[in-house]
Design a protein that fits this description.
By secondary structure, the protein is of the alpha/beta class. It has helices at about 1-15, 35-45, 65-70, 75-80, 110-115, 115-130, 145-150, 170-180; strands at about 20-25, 55, 100, 135, 155-160, 185-190. Helix content is about 35%, strand content about 15%. A 6-stranded parallel sheet has the order 3-2-4-1-5-6, with helices on both faces. α1 packs across α2 (about 35-45).
Length: about 200
């Protein structure tokens, strides 16, 4: 809870004042907990603000947010990006009046080719007009090129690293790819960290 509160404060400091802020959550490789982190962050922002918050599932290969919220995935991001559905007609469903979730949409054959820069730019601009803050659940940086395209269009990126699983060389490569895309990395979350001594003792070691 504390880490999401700190991230929320950082995001609110960096959000543009003339448009909605868009922030991307990604990992180096698959299975590091990006969907859980992005979902909890979006819900934390919604609970601490009256502003409209939107969570977007942009991982078209292994989407999961529609299952977490038990909604139909079809009327979602891929339909909006393809111009077949207006964003304000994709009814976001969530846990409160100021929280919405845009699922991934229908499956596409080649997500990397489908998620072109122009399509993403148009979609992100629409999201800025829809919500005060948008949190994007993105694909792994080292595996799929659309992650960096999304990063370039965002106001900041959060990198999720799974403790005792992700090799530091892989995390370093993800950071390098993001920096080459000229994006602002807000920080990293060490997910599933284990505490081998009582947690409070770590403050003194």
């Amino acid at each position: 809870v504390e880490v999401y509160s700190r991230l929320s404060q950082a995001i609110n400091r960096l959000r543009p004042r003339d448009a909605g802020g868009v922030f991307l959550v990604v990992s180096s490789v698959a299975g590091e907990g990006v969907s859980t982190v992005s979902r909890n962050l979006a819900l934390s922002l919604a609970s601490s603000s009256q502003d409209r918050i939107t969570l977007v599932d942009a991982n078209l290969r292994t989407p999961s947010q529609h299952r977490a919220f038990n909604v139909d995935r079809n009327n979602g991001l891929s339909e909006v990006a393809a111009g077949r559905l207006e964003l304000d007609r994709a009814v976001p469903l969530g846990s409160g009046v100021n929280f919405g979730m845009l699922p991934c949409g229908r499956a596409v054959t080649n997500p990397a080719e489908f998620m072109t820069a122009s399509r993403l730019r148009s979609t992100v601009n629409s999201l800025r007009n829809l919500s005060a803050l948008t949190i994007i659940d993105g694909p792994p940086v080292t595996l799929y090129p659309e992650a960096c395209e999304l990063a370039r269009l965002s106001d900041g990126v959060i990198l999720v690293v799974r403790a005792e699983s992700t090799r530091w060389e892989v995390a370093k490569q993800a950071k390098r790819l993001l920096l080459q895309s000229d994006v602002q990395i807000l920080g990293a979350i060490l997910n599933e960290r284990r505490y081998y001594i009582p947690r409070w003792i770590y403050r003194f070691v």
